[in-house]
User: What shape does this take?
Amino acid sequence: MSSNLQPGPTIDDRHSVHEASQPIGRLQQRALRLKCPACGRAPIFRGWFAMYDACQACGRRFNRDAGYLLGSIYFNYGVTALLVTIMYFAMFFGDVLTDMQRLIILTTFGILFPMWFFRYARALWIAFDEHWDPWPNESELRQMQRETQHTP
Ligand SMILES: [Zn+2]
Assistant: This one.
């Protein structure tokens, strides 16, 4: 009965929802739709590069700590390098373009693709992290409890 009077999910509710690690396939699908990996209900981004601090639906923090999102560079660089390599060999053995044309096309791709892929790389990084270290972990839970106690 008393739980019906609660205005929203409590810290304990959120913890029980997120404490188990979710299957990587589900997290990946949510990431590719740029949705919160923890619940899949709300968007991660509010603009091309601008992110929400936390999920509007479940409260999952998207930037868990200073430097946390730098890991997304691995995804962005890895996918870009793989595609440039594949395209280079396809063009090289296709033998329809000059060296200069290949250089211009691949350089342009190498600059523009990572900008387009930026949001997906971050979403995939957050999803990957959510699988191995579901939010909130013990120290984040303690931090949230401290913040709740200090709020009047
Ligand atoms: Zn969420």
